[in-house]
Design a protein that fits this description.
The protein has helices at residues 12-23, 38-42, 45-62, 78-104, 157-160, 165-168, 185-197, 216-228; strands spanning 2-8, 28-32, 107-117, 122-128, 133-143, 177-181, 200-205, 232-235, 237-245, 248-255, 260-264. The chain is α/β, with parallel strands linked by helices. It folds into 2 domains: 2-143, FAD/NAD(P)-binding domain, CATH 3.50.50; 157-264, FAD/NAD(P)-binding domain, CATH 3.50.50.60. Helix 3 (45-62) packs antiparallel against helix 4 and helix 3 packs across helix 7 (185-197).
Length: 269
């Protein structure tokens, strides 16, 4: 297949480039080995905000502040909550991505692309998900495959098991406790989400405050909210090691000026 532009990946950057190219009259093909749509609709803004909205509703119900009005926040059916999030994501992915590509007139090939050919005449060899292979040749190529979470080199972490922001939003059972490593935007979002669902949450940030890249006033406001919501904050803390067994995980952290200490999860996933 010969095209003006071949794009590897199907997230926001890939779609922006494809739409621009099609508006200019260029022929486009897109190759995606996994789920179409990239981070925002599948593992980022859309699912996280849907779950945060649900957690906020539970948090409000748990806050009995008005005399004569009784509200209640029961245990969370995490499997049902996750399924509801997926039911929201799937049609949005179809409408905003799959159907959009069809409307603009470019094909999305399901498979894994690798460059072949020569430096002067590169081509893409695509191993199709359905079996077999095809070769795609284009005048221009765009690699827009996005990124994967970086896993810190903590002793024992790989063996003990861990969640990322993606896999945390796929849980079918709510953990009793959770340690969130990292106090920037994604870590803060996950910490508040699970705390409001009923998990006992501790957040460890290696620098001296949460949201360390923002103004100190922002950090102070966030820390006040987290304190009020029962989230334990360990700032200036380095996670040194993790050990896991059938009942949970044991974490050793080193904190500035306080030596090292241990923290334990219960039935963490």
């Amino acid at each position: 297949m010969r095209h003006d532009l071949a794009i590897v990946g199907s997230g926001g950057a890939a779609f922006a480039a494809a739409i621009t190219a099609r508006d200019s009259g260029a022929s486009v093909v897109m190759i995606e080995r996994g789920t179409v749509g990239g981070t925002c609709v599948n593992t980022g803004c859309v699912p996280s905000k849907a779950l945060l909205a649900a957690a906020a509703a539970r948090h409000t119900a748990a806050d009995v502040r008005f005399p004569g009005i009784v509200t209640r926040a029961d245990a969370v059916d995490m499997a049902a909550l996750t399924a509801g999030k997926d039911d929201l994501v799937a049609p949005m992915r179809a409408c905003k991505y799959v159907d959009l590509a069809a409307g603009y007139g470019w094909e999305i090939v399901a498979g894994t692309a690798r460059f072949a050919g020569t430096a002067d005449s590169p081509v893409l060899e695509v191993s199709l998900n359905a079996g077999g292979a095809t070769t795609i040749e284009a005048a221009h190529y765009l690699v827009a495959t996005g990124a994967a979470p970086w896993i810190p080199p903590v002793s024992g972490l790989a063996g003990a098991g861990y969640l990322t922001s993606t896999t945390a939003m796929e849980l079918a059972e709510l953990p009793e406790s959770m340690l969130v490593i990292g106090g920037n935007a994604v870590g803060l979002e996950m910490a508040q989400l699970f705390a409001r669902l009923g998990t006992r949450v501790t957040i460890a940030e290696t620098l001296d405050r949460l949201a360390p890249l923002d103004e100190p006033e922002v950090s102070a406001a966030i820390e006040d909210v987290f304190d009020d919501e029962g989230i334990t904050i360990c700032a200036g803390a380095d996670v040194m090691s993790v050990r896991g067994d059938t009942t949970g995980r044991s974490v050793t952290m080193k904190t500035a000026g306080a030596g090292s200490g241990s923290w334990r999860t219960a039935r963490a996933r």
